[in-house]
Design brief:
This protein has six helices and no strands. The chain is mainly alpha-helical. It has one domain. The termini are far apart. Its main location: membrane.
Length: 200
């Protein structure tokens, strides 16, 4: 699987013959694309926070609390990506399409790529800069969902493309919220454990 040419599937170059012959399988996508890219936000968050607040995450609680949060973020990302692929597969029925799970995962993986890559900019200590970069990444992701629906699902009607794209984007927003809330819940649980240990 040529990861560099993965984006060919969301361009007019993705003919039906080529798409059938060369689309990567679910296992290939997960092992060689989704898993490595999902590590980028975790690594960048760990490096950034550990560099700036080294003592805040290493104290009474055994192990490194920040490492625990990063590991949970990684697992949550994978879970949300798989859930989004399944939801996208089912949402396509709104426009009378029955895509495979592989095609749905392909769209979600490609569309999430800008968001994974923007985490590299965590090295820039500017909140406003990162907000702008992430805003651009979100717009790019929406455009990739639109093109994925059009070329990977082979939908040609503009109304159907727009409807399915909107449904996927709204659901993805909820998925992102799940990742954020899950991380916050985990953080709170770790803080409670920390307080309990100190109290005892």
């Amino acid at each position: 699987m040529n990861l560099i040419r993965l984006f060919d599937y969301v361009t007019p170059k993705a003919t039906e013959k080529k798409a059938r012959a060369e689309k990567p399988g679910v296992t290939q996508l997960l092992l060689f694309y989704v898993l490595p890219l999902s590590l980028i936000p975790c690594i960048m968050m760990y490096l950034r926070l550990h560099h700036n607040y080294p003592r805040q995450f290493m104290d009474t609680l055994p192990g490194n609390r920040l490492l625990m949060i990063c590991a949970e973020l990684f697992v949550l990302q994978i879970a949300v990506i798989l859930a989004m692929a399944w939801i996208t597969q089912n949402l396509a029925e709104m426009v009378d399409k029955k895509p495979s799970f592989r095609d749905s995962l392909l769209i979600i993986a490609i569309a999430t790529t800008p968001l994974w890559l923007t985490s590299v900019f965590y090295v820039v200590p500017s909140l406003s800069f990162n907000v702008v970069v992430h805003g651009i990444a979100v717009l790019a992701s929406i455009a990739l969902v639109y093109r994925g629906v059009k070329y990977i699902f082979s939908i040609r009607e503009r109304g159907a493309i727009a409807t399915l794209t909107l449904a996927i984007v709204c659901t993805a927003g909820l998925g992102f919220a799940v990742v954020m809330v899950g991380s916050l819940i985990s953080w709170e649980a770790i803080e409670q454990m920390q307080f309990a240990i100190k109290k005892s």
